[in-house]
Each structure stands twice: as C-alpha cells, then as structure tokens.
Amino acid sequence: MLDLLTPAQQDPILSLSIAFREDPRTEKMDLGIGVYKDSQGITPIMQAVKAAQQQLAETQTTKSYVGLAGSEVFNQSMVDLLLKGTDGYSRCAAVQTPGASGALRMLADLMYLAKPITTVWITNPSYVNHKPVMEAAGLTVKYYPYFDMTTKQVDGEAMLAALSKAGPDDVVLLHGCCHNPTGADIRHEHWEAINELAQKNGFTPFVDIAYQGFGSGIEEDAAGLRLLADSVEEMLIATSCSKSFGLYRERTGAAIVIGKNKEEAMNAKGRILQLARATYTMPPDHGAAIVQTILTDDALTTQWREELNTMRNRIVSLREGLSSALSARTGDNRYDFIKSHKGMFSVLGLSVEQVAKLRDEFGIYAVGDSRINIAGLTEARIDYLADALIAISE
Ligand SMILES: Cc1ncc(COP(=O)(O)O)c(C=O)c1O
Prior knowledge:
The protein is an alpha/beta fold. It has helices at 12-22, 47-59, 72-83, 99-114, 130-136, 156-163, 188-201, 223-231, 262-277, 286-295, 298-330, 337-340, 352-362, 382-393; strands spanning 29-30, 92-97, 119-124, 140-145, 147-148, 153-154, 170-175, 204-209, 235-240, 253-258, 345-347, 364-365, 371-373.
C-alpha cells in the first residue's frame, strides 16, 4: 500500500527554515518563519506564562482526561476575551481545540456536516493553510480580491464588489486582525460594509483571529469581529493562543460558534464535539491550563497584557525604523506601507527573482510571495535590510 504514495510536496516555509539553518553566512537574517522574536532574536516565554506554569506545577494534582470540549473555564475565558459586551456573547458556544488550526478544521467539518455545498471565500492571498484545510473537509474554496500589489493596501472596492455576490450558501473567511501574509488589514468601514452585506444577503462570516494584540491593541484588534458579533445571526470564529500567549508548541486555541440563539449554538457545539471525537478526541491540556490560569487571575492578566503590549510596540517601532530607513534611501514614500501594515508580516510586492536575490546575495530569507516577518528583524539590522532592498530593486 505505502508504495502507491507519491512523495509529499515540501512545506515551503519549513524548508526555508532548514535552508536558513544550513546557511553558513554570519550576516544571514531569518524573516521567514512566522514566530515573534525579541531584540535578542529569541522567541521568548512570557513571564506571565512562566508564572502560570509554576502555579500549575505546584497545584495540579492529576493528568487524567479533561473532556471532549477541553477546559470549560478556558473556553469561557476565550469567549470573554473576544465577545464580552456583544449581542453574540449570550448566544455562543466554544470548544477548546489544538490551536486555531484545530479550530479551522473542526469548523470546516461542521460546515460540511451542515451544508456540504458550502463555498468558503478566502482573501487573495490568504494564510497558506486556509485553502487546504477547507478543501480537506470537502468544501469548495474561492478567493475574493483583497491585496492590491501596487498600493500594498486592501483593495476595498474590489473586495466588497465580490462579497456583494455571496449568499446563503457562502461563508466568508475574514482575518480578525494582522492579515497573514500581507499585513494589510481591512478598515472599520469595510467591517461595517461586510456586516451589512452579511445581513442583507445571508452569508455567514467566519473570523480567524490568530494575532490578537499584535496589531493595534488587544481590544482594538477584536473590534471588527465584535462589530459582526453584535448583529449577524450566525458566525464562526477560530482563535489562537500561539502568538498572543507565545504558546506555539502547546497547540492552544478555540472554535467559537454564534447562533441565532443559545440552543442553536449549543447544538453546533455538540456536533463539533462529535467531530472532534472522531479526529483527535480531546485537545492537549497544558497550554489551555496556562491561559486559563492567566485570564482568571487579575495580576497575571495585567502582566500578560503589558508583555503583549511590549511585543506589539517593538514590532511597531521596527516598522517605523525600516520604513524611514527606506525613505531616506529612496527620497520618497513608496515604503510607507510598511508603517501602516499590522502585525508581524508585510508582503513587500517583490518578484520571485528578487526574493531569491535577497537570499542568495544577502542571506535574507523571506517567504516566496515576498512576505517578511518584521519581528525577525532587530534595530541593528534595519540598515542592512534597507540596503539590500534598494540593491535588489535596482
Ligand atoms: C491566520 C492564521 N490562522 C491560524 C493559524 C494557526 O495557528 P495555530 O498555531 O493556533 O494553529 C495561523 C498561524 O500561523 C495563522 O496565521
């Protein structure tokens, strides 16, 4: 049987990491893999996470199973963080999942179970896993226009024109904040327009929020999602603790469904649990236990918020530094988009050849579509990157 298998395609981002590791040049720079790094180039464990781990080590008495939905205290904490104060708060249900990846898959399976003819509309371009996960569940995937390669901003007009055609058999997948890969986020008026379209034409919004706190602030980053949760009848949410809590390897996230009423949401939750049972059965506990320890303790919550704010401020300052280093060199504002982008990533709009040149001639590793991870940069290396970008653009 196994001999029937053709080899899998290599994951482009993971193979980039391997190539980076094997590159002997000391000036090399990893702007590929999407993890936060501090000024020492380290992906740190947050102090609030360390404190919570300590508490858990001292107080946890068992490693017995938790349950199909994971920890209900964690689930409630995620709902509070995202939806408190919205109309959807009283008519939602949440399930702990192995990362937002697990949530995306469970919600995709749920959509297929409810309505196999569903088409999921995703941004062009989108997070590399959106299409394969939705398709693996049997759903049809289509792209809607999103990023304008010339302005490096969202093409709002084209996006809304496409979404105005979506109807009751469609699900529109939106990035809650810090769009991956482009860094270009939709504006408040876009969220308002999408909200109106969803109500008028009956499509279901599905918000994937994997970087809360990395864009403009913990509350600000959930504003678009909350706007929808206030008015639409149905909505799906995938949320991640990988970045916001730095818990990448602990695989911590949640799937949240908002229904017309609580009963509908609880019914959907029951079906997700059944789907989870047939997939991984139960989510891993440790990351969720850490998050719930933090979010149910005022002092730890304050500490976590401060640490996350520091991480965001570092990214914002790197964005400002890089964009001014580039305008000093070009004498114009063509790189100002780097300042207006949100979160860790920016798509620079370079060709495949230019991305290869960055790697071959300067040891700078960016993803093939010219996505760079701003958090992979340090203050001291801004000039090096700026010089390289000018050199490959000539
Ligand atoms: C937009 C988006 N959604 C979901 C995920 C998956 O995150 P997790 O590590 O929680 O599975 C990522 C991770 O890069 C992402 O960028």
